[in-house]
């Protein structure tokens, strides 16, 4: 037997008559089931929002000597993500727009809505809040992948000004923090001065660069050999909007990089696959097998596209081709396990180069997002 969802709503209104009227409308709703509480002052309302005990807040515009807009601002300034609907006695476009800018999800005028309209507004507000929360979770997972990948990743403006860099790049260049990294390296794309013009010209003419090696000195003066792959992202007019790149320290090629990768997968629980140029999966971390539902022995030797839903395989094949052309990529793809279970996963693909600058394999870091 299915149970009806219960939504807890705090009605924020300094007028008892208006409070009872709003509560009576909510009581007429058959679904969802509503539980209400009342806050009659600004401070009571703020305490209720801070508690996080409610799913939604109905905020009257007038609150004694303060306004609902003041409450919205205070909640925003305190970092409180509370789904709110503003209610006022008179329609005002300026108040409506300001409420939306501050963070209200919807705006209702007293006397101009009935229980059905109130129910629609509540449903819309909660759907929007859930979507925003899911987006924040996805971005946090994506950021976690970006931060933990053992390859230096960065984003720069067309002029080379630093936008973002992951911790691996900070470590590679011996910088104590991203700020120092920005000041020292970003305007040169982390290149030796004599290599910058060639790098930029290739990027401008071909849209991407792969296997580009340059020698620089880190913050402590040690000489490093860095291998770059970069891609220019263009706008509709063809102008370069920003540049994303990957950097490897190839100063001492050898087995230490693979050992570090294994340590990361073992100690940090990262889900990583190694894929050969022919698309064959040659190694996985244990967590990948558990997520996909394969045993490690079964998954190793499968083709790259075999672990994707049918509708995703062509795009997965293109992702692999780009990786072996020297460019990493990030995005969401629908994957499938041996039982047929499908789910969305966020993938970060990074090419691995040999001493000659050729891509010899691809690393794929995956993070499950949700059931498909």
Structure description:
The chain is α+β, with helices and mostly antiparallel strands. The chain folds into 3 domains: 6-137, Rossmann fold, CATH 3.40.50.2300; 149-249, PAS domain (Beta-Lactamase, 2-Layer Sandwich); 256-371, Beta-Lactamase (2-Layer Sandwich). 37% of the residues lie in helices and 31% in strands. The chain has 12 helices and 17 strands. It has helices spanning 16-27, 42-51, 68-77, 93-102, 115-148, 167-172, 178-184, 193-206, 256-268, 286-292, 296-299, 313-324; strands spanning 6-12, 33-39, 56-60, 62-63, 66-67, 84-88, 106-109, 152-156, 162-165, 208-217, 223-234, 240-249, 272-276, 281-284, 329-336, 342-353, 359-371. Strands 2-1-3-6-7 form a 5-stranded parallel beta sheet, sandwiched between helices. It has a 5-stranded antiparallel beta sheet with strand order 9-8-12-11-10. Strand 4 and strand 5 form a beta hairpin. The longest helix has 34 residues, at 115-148. The chain is elongated. 31% of the residues are buried. The mean pLDDT is 78.
Summarize this structure as a short list of keywords or feature phrases.
372 residues, alpha+beta, Rossmann fold, Beta-Lactamase, five-stranded parallel beta sheet, five-stranded antiparallel beta sheet, 12 helices, 37% helix, 31% strand, elongated
């Amino acid at each position: 037997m299915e149970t009806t969802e219960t939504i807890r709503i705090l009605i924020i209104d300094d007028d008892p008559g208006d409070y009872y009227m709003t509560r009576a409308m909510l009581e007429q709703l058959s679904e969802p089931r509503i539980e209400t509480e009342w806050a009659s002052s600004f401070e009571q309302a703020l305490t209720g929002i801070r508690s996080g005990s409610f799913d939604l807040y109905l905020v009257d515009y007038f609150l004694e000597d303060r306004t609902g807009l003041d409450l919205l601002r205070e909640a925003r300034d305190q970092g409180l993500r509370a789904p709110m609907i503003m209610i006022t006695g008179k329609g005002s476009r300026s108040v409506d727009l300001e409420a939306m800018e501050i963070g209200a999800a919807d705006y209702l005028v007293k006397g101009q809505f009935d229980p059905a309209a109130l129910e629609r507004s509540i449903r819309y507000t909660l759907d929007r809040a859930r979507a925003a929360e899911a987006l924040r979770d996805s971005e946090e997972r994506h950021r976690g992948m970006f931060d933990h990948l053992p390859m230096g990743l960065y984003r720069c403006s067309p002029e080379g000004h630093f936008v973002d860099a992951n911790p691996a790049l900070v470590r590679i260049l011996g910088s104590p923090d991203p700020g120092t990294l920005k000041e020292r390296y970003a305007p040169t794309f982390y290149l030796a001065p004599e290599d910058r013009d060639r790098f930029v010209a290739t990027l401008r003419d071909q849209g991407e660069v792969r296997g580009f090696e340059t020698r620089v000195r880190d913050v402590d003066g040690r000489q490093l050999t860095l291998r770059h792959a970069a891609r220019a992202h263009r706008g509709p007019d063809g102008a370069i909007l920003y540049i994303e790149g990957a950097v490897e320290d190839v100063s001492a090629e050898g087995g230490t990089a693979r050992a570090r990768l294994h340590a990361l997968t073992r100690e940090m629980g990262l889900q990583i696959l190694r894929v050969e140029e022919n698309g064959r999966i040659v190694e996985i971390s244990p967590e990948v097998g558990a997520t996909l539902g394969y045993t490690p022995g079964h998954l190793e030797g499968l083709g790259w596209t075999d672990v994707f839903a049918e509708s995703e395989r062509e795009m997965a094949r293109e992702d692999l081709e780009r990786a072996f052309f020297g460019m990493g990529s990030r995005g969401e793809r629908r994957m499938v396990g041996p039982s047929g279970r499908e789910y969305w996963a966020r993938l970060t693909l990074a090419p691995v180069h040999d001493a000659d600058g050729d891509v010899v394999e691809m690393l794929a870091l995956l993070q499950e997002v949700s059931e498909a």
